[in-house]
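Sample intake — MFS transporter
Collected from: Agromyces mediolanus
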Amino acid sequence: MAQTETRPSARTSPERQGRTARIAAFLGTTVEWYDFYIYGTAAALAFGPVFFPNVDASTAILASFATFWAGFLARPIGGMVFGHLGDKFGRKNTLVATLLIMGVATFCIGILPGYATIGVAAPVLLTLLRALQGFAVGGEWGGAVLLAAESGPKSKAVRGGMFVQQGSPAGNILATTAFALAAFLPDEAFLAWGWRMPFLLSALLVVIGLVIRLRLEEPEEFAQTKAAAETVKVPLFELLKHHWKAVVAAVFASGLGIGMAYFVSTFMLSYATTTLGVDRQVMLNILLVGAVIQFVWQPIGTRIAERVGTTKFMIWSLAASAVLAVPLFLLVTTGEPWLILLGIGMSMIAGTGYYAVLAGFLAQAFPVEVRYSGVSLSYQLCSTLIGGTTPLLAQLFLNLGGGHWGGVAGFFIALIVITVAGVLALAAITGFSAARERELRNAE
């Protein structure tokens, strides 16, 4: 009996696969972050009077930021669920599922009636839909990082991770643009229906993202692990048993990367428009320019990090962020648009240099069989502890200080110090150094 020849499944070349994976990770993550950012923007501008109309303005903002935090509480759960599925069965299908869940939740927020229509059910349903958003993002970010980092040469993992980080400013640009257009409406129309338009637009973006992700292949590194039957039975148990120190360090190393985005785009937007009286349209335009600065600077920062060493570059960037914390508030409190832009622009350049290389830095910390779980759990735990609480705590410090920004600046600097400690600890645990990065480049 003739033996049938078994041919290996055809795969695209590593270079082409890596390029396609990075583009797909960037586009999909852009959609996810667009959905996430429009919630933060709406929480700062609209959710108070729409969903909490029976309290004063400051309390309404606190309540809006509390629903904002609900998404972060759900993110570690999403990280554990999708991290397990991604480590066991593959990255591609989990990323399709997270994008679909996020899209449905965001669209439903756009059609959710306000307090005046359905009473207390409105903020309850808003909180549940926000939690569903968080559940989806909990699995999205880690999977997108691995899709980009595992699909190319190991020496370019940090650069691959940067493509995922580009999704944050790109999503922010889209979200801020959508709300900047809606902000042209009179206040009554904006609160009645204008704020809903960016949420409904998400449906189109999700369809585009799904078409792209359904065409992807699994990263070569994971495909080889799965083919060799080296996947572990319960990745989360394996992770916590053998790599818990790296998880703890990675939680703190992610601090400013998560906190800064919401400090600027959510708290600062609310502070400037409510406390300082800056025009809503002006502030949205400033944040839009800030997101463009981030988008342009991150690839440049990544190339510098590849030359001087990722850990060193992250520490430099974090130190610059701490130095600029007080000048940021001094410039913002002038109320002058160009000075506000100067303060936010300088802070963006400092903080987002670190953020650009964070994804690749975390991906290096865990072995491939538990990498999805490790990256997702650590980053999403940080999002719960720091990301979701940042605008809430910043507003609380502002209220306790009688409207003075001193306590908020101190809180921001403390967050940076914690992040520096996490970066140094993770680098020491994993041995991730400039010398190691040079070895990988020379070996290829």
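Post-analysis note: The CA atoms of residues 273 and 437 lie 45 Å apart.
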